Amino acid sequence: MPWDFWLIFLFLGVVIPWRGYARLKKLLSRPSVDTRAKLVLYAATIAFQWMLVGLVAWRALVHGLTAQELGLGSRGWVGIVASGVSGAVFIGGLQWLNLRRIGKMEGEAPELLRKLASRILPVNLSEYLPYSALAITAGVCEEFVYRGFAIAALSKAGLPLWLVVILSSILFGLAHAYQGRGGIVSTGIFGVLLAIGRLGFGSLVPVMMWHAGLDLAAGVAAPKYLLGRAASD
Length: 233
What we know:
This protein is an all-alpha fold. It has one domain (3-232). The chain is built from 8 helices and no strands. The longest helix has 32 residues, at 125-156.
């Protein structure tokens, strides 16, 4: 594997989890986060993710990874898009039901999610529109990095497919370390589903839509069920 690929994986496995955890710790130390601070957070995250995608795509192309290997080339676009839309609705619905369930729970993990929701998720339309841009960005950019580049690079290195799926999903879970251990595990499991979908369809398009659907649903359901009346104030 090229040296710069190793650096990218080191960045994904160490720097991104540390960066997310440090940023979250700073946010949690604040009594509240206003609209302006959320919009700055959304904009900074969008810019960072697109810059990362640009860098990763550049190095991938330099080392000869093809669009097909990266999950960007496909045939049968009607079926691909239909699978993406239907999957996004289904996964978004599951996310909605899960957050409604968590909203009725007590304990350390639900309390952490409530604190997260109050500081990073939208509570009004002026916040939700930029958040939607962030959710779509995350769907596109994170899927390219973790299910496009990571799977292509690890496969090219000769690793068995099952190990490629596991390693790329672990990296994806670690990227969400700011959600706590439960967040790492649940996101890692979701990463396995996304990896299987990407390999099964031979395209990133459906899983990009699934990922965005999950985040868009969270932006509505989490404030509603985790914050209750606070979300409508």
